[in-house]
Amino acid sequence: MENIGTYILDAVLAALLGVILRYGVPYIKALITAKNFAFVSGWVDKAVAAAEQTIQGSGLGEKKKAFVIGLLSELNIVVDNTVDAMIEAAVKVLNDTIDRAAAKAEEKAAGGNVL
Q1: What's the rounded Cα separation, in Å, for the pair 35 and 18?
Q2: Would you say residue 106 has pLDDT above 90?
């Protein structure tokens, strides 16, 4: 009778371990991936803004990108194709914001009604 209880306990523990490995590990991996993405995305936005503020002038995109990559490298962020796309997206958002602000300022200066 004692051996049957041990076998049942072993079977229950094996099943529990299987469930944990099947559902728990992917869940934890997804959480870590999401947090890493948010971490990298936040630093990309900050690095792009810092490059724009630090390196003044137009036509210096490559120099600004090198600055961003250098900052990210100091944070041990590997700049792969995904991070490169994040950099380009952050630059576009920043440029669009600047363009909208400039358009509103021009409209206001011309006497237009700006909301």
Answers
A1: 26
A2: no
* Residue found under tokens 């490559």: 62
Segment 57-85 mean pLDDT: 92
- Encoded tokens for 9: 């306990």
What is the residue type of 70? G
Residue 84 pLDDT more than 70?
Answer: yes
**57: left (phi > 0), else alpha (psi -120 to 50), else beta?**
left
Quick check: helix, strand or coil at residue 60?
A: coil
CA distance 73 to 68: 9
User: What does the angle CA 33 – CA 36 – CA 41 come to, to the nearest 5 degrees?
Assistant: 125
Helix (H, G, I), strand (E, B) or coil at 80: coil
Query: For residues 15 and 33, what is the distance between their CA atoms, to the nearest angstrom?
Result: 27
Q: Which amino acid is at 106?
A: E
92: Cβ contacts below 8 Å, ≥ 6 apart: none
Q: What is the share, in percent, of the chain residues with pLDDT greater than 70?
A: 95
* Stretch (H or E) spanning 35: helix 25-54
